[in-house]
Amino acid sequence: MNFKALTAIALVAGLSAPLAMAGGADDDNMVINGDTDMTTKAAAAAHLDGALDEVISGWHFRSDETQQLQLDDFDNPGMIFVDKAMDTWNAAEGTEGKACADCHDDPADSMAGVRATYPKWNEAAGEVRTLQMQVNDCRVNQMGAEAWKYDAGTAVDMEAMISVQSRGMPMNVAIDGGAADTWAKGKELYYTRTGQLELSCANCHEDNYGNYIRADHLSQGQTNGFPAYRLKNAKLNGVHSRFKGCVRDTRAETYSPGSAEFIALELYVASRGNGLAVEGPSVRN
Amino acid sequence: MRLTIITAALVLAAGMSAAETVLPADVAYGEDGAVEMSLTGKAGDAAEGAIIMSSKGRGNCISCHAVTALNDAPFHGEVGPMLDGIGDVRSEAEIRGIVADAKMTFEESLMPSFYKTTGYIRPGNAYTGKAPTEELAPLLSAQDIEDVVAFLLTLKDS
């Protein structure tokens, strides 16, 4: 059945007031700081054949006011946390007395392109690593410092600072080789209908993007904009925390940030965004 | 199961008011997913049904469906079809079946099963994200379902 058509009929019939009518992604263009053109719509990767033709940034589903905040770094409240992470980057910590900068110098050079390829298979470790896992590996094994708690402020702020160095580059996450098994596991999770409401990620973000569910305008649930500054909680939010919220909303027992399940899901969802520009930190309601 | 229903039917037929509530596992769905018999034997309250459909903490039906008669409650969704005139299009039994468990009528439906307590993957304790500590209750009670059905039957264009 075509519900958009039904909605259209309702409109013609003269329905008004509290109905949240909108339909689909808007046609605005994203240019950051007046100079960086961002790819916010792209042809879907081959592995999405039959699922999606086009992938669309979550930015297109937000209000004009919210969208605006992401267009200039002076307006983007997420940039304050990026600055904070820059200080952390330069601060020595741990038993080795080293800072990130001691090994990686200027992140504008060393971290350019990094965010676009994560999560990523690590051959030596024999595991798929998210960016936060990789940062923690450096902290523990190179600096002799403690691992940051998953999706906690410091970890997410650092992820945002590293993301900025790839802003505008297309997401390009590998799904083959060592990553293939984890990717398949993530895909299965994406299509599993969980909780007492029995809803899967796909039910909302593949079958119904562009539609309103109560007051929420559903996007494709892409991760290219993460970490995301949310007006709702006034801080940067990690991908796994977002997943957790979505799963909770199906009246399900959630997985934890940093769990094997969410690592696999992050890989899979990130791969659905291949071709979209890295946007982090994005601004969302 | 069947027996309970038959008993309830007999009780009803005998004109007794204190009919037994049909439990979620005992609801008799027809081949097309319709449920002929009232789940409580008590007439539904349409006004209460309207409240249930609009309330976030209860049916929250308007998160997916637009209903002109419920326009006092803000933000109607677009995930399901709009329900104006449903009382003309569908019988009481069909509507009861859809509200109790839409998957019996529409295979793989996106619509949650409101009168069901088993068969879930990783069910949680409401919206806490934690595992349930007690047996799951259905999303709506038997009387809630009857109230919603009564309300939907009032949605007639003619």
Q: How do the helices and strands line up, and which of them pair or pack?
A:
The complex is a heterodimer of chains A (285) and B (158).
Chain A: H1 3-12, E1 31-32, E2 36-37, E3 41-43, E4 54-56, H2 64-69, H3 79-90, H4 100-104, H5 107-110, E5 120-122, E6 127-129, H6 131-143, H7 153-164, H8 180-191, H9 201-205, E7 212-213, E8 216-217, E9 228-230, E10 235-237, H10 239-248, H11 260-272, E11 282-284
Parallel strand pairs in A: 9-11
Antiparallel strand pairs in A: 1-2, 3-4, 5-6, 7-8, 9-10
Helix pairs in contact in A: 3-7, 8-11
Chain B: H1 2-13, H2 46-54, H3 86-89, H4 92-100, H5 142-153
Helix pairs in contact in B: 2-5, 4-5
Determine the strand fraction of chain A and express it as a percent band: 5-15%
Q: If classified by CATH, what would the architecture of the domain at 27-114 and 140-157 in chain B be? A: Orthogonal Bundle
Beta-strand residue percentage of chain B: under 5%
Largest β sheet strand count, sense and barrel closure of chain B: none
Helix-and-strand structural type of chain B = mainly alpha
The chain-level mean pLDDT of chain B equals: 91
Rg from Cα of chain B: 16 Å
Largest sheet of chain A, order of strands side by side? 10-9-11
N- and C-termini, Cα separation of chain A: 31 Å
Name of the top-level CATH class of the domain at 27-114 and 140-157 in chain B = Mainly Alpha
- The CATH superfamily of chain A appears as Cytochrome c-like domain
Order of helices and strands of chain B: HHHHH
The number of distinct β-strands of chain A equals 11
The proportion of residues forming helix of chain A, as a percent range, comes to 25-40%
InterPro entries (chain A): Cyt_c-like_dom (IPR009056), Cyt_c-like_dom_sf (IPR036909), SoxA (IPR025710)
EC number (chain A): 2.8.5.2
Signal peptide (chain A): 1-22
Binding site for substrate (chain A): 242
